[in-house]
From TrEMBL, chains A, B:
<keyword id="KW-0238">DNA-binding</keyword>
<dbReference type="InterPro" id="IPR009057">
    <property type="entry name" value="Homeodomain-like_sf"/>
</dbReference>
<dbReference type="Pfam" id="PF21943">
    <property type="entry name" value="TetR_C_46"/>
</dbReference>
<dbReference type="InterPro" id="IPR050109">
    <property type="entry name" value="HTH-type_TetR-like_transc_reg"/>
</dbReference>
<dbReference type="Pfam" id="PF00440">
    <property type="entry name" value="TetR_N"/>
</dbReference>
<feature type="domain" description="HTH tetR-type">
    <location>
        <begin position="4"/>
        <end position="64"/>
    </location>
</feature>
<dbReference type="InterPro" id="IPR023772">
    <property type="entry name" value="DNA-bd_HTH_TetR-type_CS"/>
</dbReference>
<dbReference type="GO" id="GO:0003700">
    <property type="term" value="F:DNA-binding transcription factor activity"/>
</dbReference>
<feature type="DNA-binding region" description="H-T-H motif">
    <location>
        <begin position="27"/>
        <end position="46"/>
    </location>
</feature>
<dbReference type="InterPro" id="IPR054129">
    <property type="entry name" value="DesT_TetR_C"/>
</dbReference>
<keyword id="KW-0804">Transcription</keyword>
<protein>
    <submittedName>
        <fullName>TetR family transcriptional regulator</fullName>
    </submittedName>
</protein>
<dbReference type="InterPro" id="IPR001647">
    <property type="entry name" value="HTH_TetR"/>
</dbReference>
<dbReference type="GO" id="GO:0000976">
    <property type="term" value="F:transcription cis-regulatory region binding"/>
</dbReference>
<keyword id="KW-0805">Transcription regulation</keyword>
Amino acid sequence: MGVEERRQQLIGVALELFSRRSPDEVSIDEIAAAAGISRPLVYHYFPGKLSLYEAALKRASEDLASRFVEPQEGPLGSRLLRVMRRFFDFVDDHGPGFSALMRGGPAVGSSTTNALVDAVRQAAYDQILSHLRVTNPPARLELVVRSWISLAESTALIWLDGRRIPRGELEVQLVHDFAALAAVSATYDEEMAAVMRDIVKDEPGDGPFSDLVVRLVALAS
Amino acid sequence: MGVEERRQQLIGVALELFSRRSPDEVSIDEIAAAAGISRPLVYHYFPGKLSLYEAALKRASEDLASRFVEPQEGPLGSRLLRVMRRFFDFVDDHGPGFSALMRGGPAVGSSTTNALVDAVRQAAYDQILSHLRVTNPPARLELVVRSWISLAESTALIWLDGRRIPRGELEVQLVHDFAALAAVSATYDEEMAAVMRDIVKDEPGDGPFSDLVVRLVALAS
C-alpha cells in the first residue's frame, strides 16, 4: 500500500473502533491489531493517538455534514424529517464515540476537535438557512436555528443513554420542535412571523408541520 | 489572614477575573496583583492556574445552582420566569467566563470542570422535577427537561455573542419554549399529556403560559 492509502485505511479502522467504544478505551495496540500492522508502523503514519483520533473525527464530521444536504424541493417539514433520519442513522452507527465527544471528556477535547464539532454545527446552520432561502438572518432566526441544533444534539445524546424512546418518534419530534420554537419566536417578532408563514405556506395537509397543528389542537381540547 | 480566609479571598479575586475575560487570558501574575500578594504566595495556596480555576468554577457553579431554588408556590410559569431572570443575571455577570467554559476551550476542559457543569445541569433538572412534583420521570419527560436545559444554555451563549436580542425577551421566550417542547411531547404520549394538564391547570389567564397560547392563536389567524 502507498502512504496515503495506508493512512486512509488506518483512519477507517480507527473510526470504526472510536465509534463503537469510548475513544478513551481504545489503544494504539488495538488499532494496530485491527489494521493488521505493527504498533511502530501506526506511529510511522500518525505521531500519536490524538492525531489519529482527530483524523478519524475529521472523516466522521465530513460524513455527518454530507448527510445534511437535501434537495431543495418539496415541503420543508418533509425535507427536515429526511435529514433527521440520516442524522439518527449516523448517531446510531457512532453511538459511544458520539457520546464521548459531545460530553467533552478530557481525552477527546482539543482545539482541533472543537473546531470540527463547530464546523458540523455551522454546516447544519448553513443548510437550514439555505432551505429557508434566507441569506441575512435576523437575530431571532439565528437564535432559533442554532439553539434548535443544540436541542437536536442533546436529544440524540439522551436517546443514546438507554434508547428508551423509539428513534423514529424522536426524528419526527425534532421536526415538530423546530416548528414549535420558530412559532414561539414568531409570536414576538414580525420578521420571524414572516419566516414562519413562508415555512407553512407550502406544507401539505399530511406533512409533519400540519400533523403537529392537528395534534396540538387535539391536545388542547 | 488565616490560610482558609486567604484561599477564599483568592478564589473571589480569581472568579472576578475569570468571569470578565476568557480564563485563557488571565495570568497568575494578574491574579496575584489583584489580590495584592506575590506570585509565589498564590502558588503557596494553589498549585497552579487550573486548580485555582477549578476552585473559582466550583464557587460559581454553587452560586448558579442556588439561583434555581424557588418557592413551590404560585403558577409554574411565573416560577420558571423568576428562575430565568436569575439565570440571565448570572450569565450577565460572568459572560466571558461562561462562554469560554461552555464552548469547551482546551484550557478550561478537565474532568473536574466537566463534573461541575454536569452538577449544575443536574441541579436544574432536579429543581424542575420537584416543582412538577414528579419523582419517577417517564423517559419523555426526562428528555423534555434535559433537552430544554441545553436549549437554555445555548440561548444564553448566543445572547452573549453580541446581545442582539433584549435579555428580558429571552427570559420569557425560554419559559414559552419549555411549554412548547412539553406540548409537542404531550401530543405523542398520554403520560406527558397528563404532566402538561397538571402544568396548565393552575395557570392564571395572565401568566406566561396563557400568554403563549394567546400569542399563538393570534399568529395562526
